[in-house]
Amino acid sequence: MTIRVLLADDQALLRSAFRVLVDSEPDMEVVGEAADGAQAVALARTARPDVVLMDIRMPGTDGLAATRMISAEPDLAGVHVVMLTTFEVDEYVVQSLRAGASGFLGKGAEPEELLNAIRIAAAGDALLSPVATKGLIATFLAQAASSGDGPDPAVSSERLDALTVREREVLVLVAGGHSNDEIAERLQVSPLTVKTHVNRAMAKLGARDRAQLVVIAYESGLVRPRVE
């Protein structure tokens, strides 16, 4: 199966570099290029890519707004957004995860990292290290809470009511940065059983992938942020 990739970046030179890299892979192809978020959304509707490499900062409709629009359309549920950012730690990264992105990647990443990220995102998984996601979200939510702009745990925790005890336990471990194999070892069950619990939790919580589960775990208060 060929992974269909849409490139969204206002820098033509960077798009060209990404196109050469992606098209050089036998299991990938670039199906479109967009110079801003509005074009990205329009092309996502027509080209139906598996993965969108989306720059966060673009003129007009930026990557964050475009990601929200793509994630809000049921017909585009199979489109996974990978946010590209110049800065590894950026509050917009967390906002993009909340908006429905599968994760983020720094523009300084190595070619193999980018290609691997595309494959992981296309499979419906979070493309970035769960530990990195956890640390970033914890920092952001702690800062938001201290400024009074954080989510209301009483309201957010209502989202967890549909989960079983085991699904909550798995969610905590996912938010802790553990892989399915590691969770399986801790709970003494098979990785397939863990995957089933993760998928059920995602369905019940309306999460697109593991990155979204991490966000929900923190926003609901199920996992408490700790800032080093």
Automatic annotation (TrEMBL):
Superkingdom of origin organism: Bacteria
Protein's UniProt name: Response regulator transcription factor
Organism: Streptomyces scopuliridis
